[in-house]
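Worked Example 4.2. Consider the chain below.
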Amino acid sequence: MSTSRPATTGTPASRSSAWTPRRRSSSATSRTAAASGVPPASLSRSASTTFADPQLGKAVPYGIYDLTANTGWVNVGTDHDTAAFAVESIRRWWHGQGQAAYPRATRLLITADAGGSNGYRTRSWKLELAQSAAETGLTITVCHLPPGTSKWNKIEHRLFSRITMNWSGRPLTSHEVIVQSIAATTTRTGLRVRAELDTNTYPTGVRIKDAEMAALRLTRHAFQGAWNYALHPHPSPVIPAARAPQTPDPEWD
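Applying the procedure from the previous section yields the following structure tokens:
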């Protein structure tokens, strides 16, 4: 979710704390992803505002929205919003929902913001996606949105705005309340949302060496290759070089 998304909190009589949303300092926190296969799918993914409380801990909702099926998947983390967390959320969506919905899919298209944990300059984002491509056998293509355009991310309007309205006025007093509130979100157009808690740890400050980046099975598009690229589960096809002309063997007498 974008940094401008509001959230309502309060303090119930039976609890001493409730989460208060903190706006991120980065300008790009929304992401979009799309899966294509037979039939084609389209989904978008977003990391929301972080909720942090000294007693209750941290909650980081990270959502995936399938544009074709009008379904959402939200992974609620309890640690840092890192590239590993972003890709793990996409991986959980694929194994929990995407693969069953699109069993013949061979490709995954991700349109992402230019910054944040899945920014085009984030090395660990590419490395984690490369590992996911190898695990799933999917060719993962990423197209980054230009800076400052995250407000046009469809997940903001079709999923997270609905979640915000659904829990408006409800105290977010536990991880369970957040997960249940997100999963209860519906619309008249048939939106269905699935949510789960992710208690894994995602350390920050992970450094990726130049040699690791050079070894990635990554190909860049001809147009804005820094923003548009593909990660392959297998070595990308290599076009053989043209053979030099050869003198034909003499004919037998």
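The CA atoms of residues 217 and 236 lie 7 Å apart. DSSP finds five helices and eleven strands in the chain. Compare this with Example 4.1 before moving on.
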